[in-house]
């Protein structure tokens, strides 16, 4: 029985895809093992957004060869699609597969027989038109379910459309089937993932269905306690979806909404499809209907043309907005993007200063959000996340909660009252009250 090990870099989408590919291997009789367990085959799923993607890829290949010198090393993922030739030149790599090929790798790689030359099977990204269903099953608490792939937007800084292709989706019927399958394994929370999830509904280049209808259909699936939307563009997070989430049985009051800049000048340069006024509307709508909702924000600092003044616009905008945390990205030039050709480049030192300022702001926001919720009662889904005698989990509105470790808590929903914020910044609960089986 051949042994195969996986390594994933990047986003939830990559994790869901690795998980599905690993199940394909298991179905064919391969044994899935940990990275250190002398595998015969390594599958490394790469990311192009990660800083130093090339260095990371080389490092993992080197490590793999150290563990198992005769192993067959395959590289897939966004970086593999963008730079197949470069990757094929890394010592120790046996095969590189692109976006259109990665889900067929067992059939394409010919029993993983080693050859003199590295196999490069990466078609042009235009060929990646098929949607491949994927979901991750890890510790049975949360699952990432891919519902959409690719993007038609073409923001000036982004390589994702080049690495993942055009927007395409699963069908509502098929997502519902997957959700039922996942529910049957005992998973309590599904996180819907995609590249541009609000653009859900395009099949073979035609819009057939709507994201809002997917939301309605999933809300009816028995056996799943929680549904979370991973991240959605502000222009696609409609009032219809927000209003539904406010009354939903299963969709949680947590929204992660990329802003990228609080300056309209920069938003226009980035080619984003909204202005800051729309963002304020969305936040106001969410907070009016769900005052306890958690709102996460992606923001990029140091985009070309971001002067001190324009950065301050972003800072002040975020400071005044009723949001709960930020994910801060420091802009870095990516080959083949419009932004990489732009003038008014921001010096690296300024970029990191701005990033630091926003990270501090994020902590302030998170603490404020947690403090506002102290004394209130929520449901926590405890995960296999144990440290220093404490077990952790998240409330429906994404507050990270710590409680005294008890193995019986894993994958259980408990009703808790949030007592205090501990020195690690988590909210501590003294006594999870009782098992809360809502559905
Ligand atoms: S919406 Fe913009 S940033 Fe997001 S994947 Fe599409 S092109 Fe990239």
Task: Annotate the secondary structure layout.
Blueprint: E1 3-8, H1 12-27, E2 31-32, E3 41-46, H2 53-67, E4 72-77, H3 78-82, H4 84-88, E5 95-97, H5 105-108, E6 119-121, E7 134-135, E8 142-146, E9 148-149, H6 160-164, E10 168-169, H7 172-184, E11 189-193, E12 202-203, E13 206-207, H8 211-218, E14 226-229, H9 239-247, E15 254-260, H10 264-270, H11 276-289, E16 294-301, H12 308-320, E17 325-330, H13 348-373, E18 377-387, E19 390-395, E20 400-404, E21 413-417, E22 420-421, E23 427-428
Parallel strand pairs: 1-2, 1-3, 3-4, 4-5, 5-6, 8-11, 11-14, 15-16, 16-17, 20-23
Antiparallel strand pairs: 7-8, 9-10, 12-13, 18-19, 18-21, 19-20, 22-23
Helix pairs in contact: 7-8, 9-11, 12-13
Bound molecules: iron/sulfur cluster.
Iron/sulfur cluster binds at residues 151, 153-155, 158, 160-161, 195-196, 233.
């Amino acid at each position: 029985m051949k042994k195969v090990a996986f390594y994933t870099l990047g986003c939830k989408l990559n994790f869901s895809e690795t998980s599905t590919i690993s199940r394909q291997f298991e179905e064919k009789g391969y044994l899935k093992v940990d990275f250190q367990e002398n595998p015969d085959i390594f599958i490394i799923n790469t990311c192009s957004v990660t800083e130093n993607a090339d260095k990371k890829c080389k490092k993992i290949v080197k490590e793999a060869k150290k563990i198992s010198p005769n192993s067959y090393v395959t590289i897939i993922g966004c970086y593999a699609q963008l730079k197949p030739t470069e990757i094929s030149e890394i010592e120790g790599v046996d095969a590189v597969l692109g976006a259109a090929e990665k889900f067929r790798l067992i059939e394409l790689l010919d029993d993983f027989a080693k050859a003199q030359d590295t196999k490069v099977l990466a078609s042009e990204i235009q060929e990646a038109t098929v949607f491949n269903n994927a979901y991750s099953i890890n510790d049975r608490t949360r699952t990432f379910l891919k519902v959409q792939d690719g993007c038609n937007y073409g923001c000036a800084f982004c390589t994702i459309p080049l690495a993942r292709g055009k927007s395409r989706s699963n069908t509502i019927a098929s997502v519902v089937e997957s959700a039922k399958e996942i529910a049957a394994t005992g998973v309590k929370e599904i996180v819907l993932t995609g590249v541009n999830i609000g653009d859900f509904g395009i099949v073979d280049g035609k819009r057939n269905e709507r994201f809002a209808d997917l939301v309605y259909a999933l809300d009816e699936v028995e056996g799943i306690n929680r549904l979370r939307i991973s991240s959605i563009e502000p222009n696609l997070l409609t009032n219809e979806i927000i209003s539904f989430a406010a009354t939903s049985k299963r969709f949680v009051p947590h929204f992660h909404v990329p802003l990228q800049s609080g300056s309209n000048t920069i938003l226009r340069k980035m080619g984003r499809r909204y202005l800051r006024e729309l963002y304020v509307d969305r936040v106001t709508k969410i907070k009016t209907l769900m005052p306890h909702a958690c709102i996460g924000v992606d923001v990029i600092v140091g985009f070309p043309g971001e002067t001190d003044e324009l950065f301050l616009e972003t800072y002040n905008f975020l400071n005044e907005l009723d949001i709960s945390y930020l994910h801060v990205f420091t802009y870095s030039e990516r080959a083949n993007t419009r932004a990489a050709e732009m003038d008014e480049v921001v010096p690296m030192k300024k970029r990191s200063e701005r990033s630091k300022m926003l990270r501090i702001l994020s902590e302030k926001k998170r603490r404020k959000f947690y403090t506002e919720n102290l004394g209130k009662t929520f449901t926590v889904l405890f995960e296999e996340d144990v440290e220093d005698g404490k077990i952790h989990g998240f409330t429906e509105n994404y507050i990270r909660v710590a409680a005294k470790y008890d193995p019986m808590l894993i994958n259980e929903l408990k009703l808790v009252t949030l007592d205090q914020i501990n020195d690690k910044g988590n909210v501590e609960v003294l006594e999870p009250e009782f098992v809360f089986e809502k559905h």
